Amino acid sequence: MKMKARMKVFSSWSGGKESCLACYKALSDGFDVSYLLNFVSEDGKRSRAHGISSDLIALQAEAIGIPIIQVKSSWAGYEAKFKQAVEELKGRGVKGGVFGDIDLPEHKEWVDRVCSEVEVVSIEPLWGNEPLEILKEFVNAGFKAIVIKVKADSFGKEWVGRELNEQFINGLPKEIHPCGEHGEYHTFVVDGPLFQRRMEITKSDKKFKDGSWLLDISGYELSEKAFTREANVNK
User: Fold this and answer.
1) How far apart are CA 34 and CA 47, in angstroms?
2) Which of 56, 82, 134, 158 is the 20 to 30 A CA-CA neighbour of 173?
3) Does the predicted TM-score (pTM) go above 0.85?
């Protein structure tokens, strides 16, 4: 969706590959992505989407250079908190939101309905694209992401901590959604054309919980960029 004028928008943010690529494509299409909107647990310690440290998500936003708004919420109160947050952003001139949905109708229907009710435009840069092509576009653009969670009935422990690259894509189990849209796996982005600085994971452990292997990240820092890209739309 291209806009003639620079519409001020927020990007719905999980820290993973889809939200990152959607944000990048929206910027490339001329949108003014002014905020990242991230929901965290009621105690504020963990990201609501993927269960990783809220501090790690905040550092990721710092590495990118876009202000992040983190909202505490239960799953039951999520929609009300989402609407409240968007209403506040409207007061700052925001007129739309960017989302990373691909092909699950129930997700897009929720986004379209809620955005309509709070009178902002819903922007879905990845919607309807071939999932494998989305993964390839993400890698080819220069993004670096690591796997932070996998369902044990689809993946072994060794998949946790792997980089999302061509080898990863080629080795994905055939029976899952290539992008893990049903929760088969989750990623965390550490570098790429959106980033002004690179994230370094300095300490982590693999843990098993509730049928999934998790990468528990306890040490992290920002480093200077190892490369620059002319296509960095956040410059």
Assistant:
1) 20
2) 56
3) yes
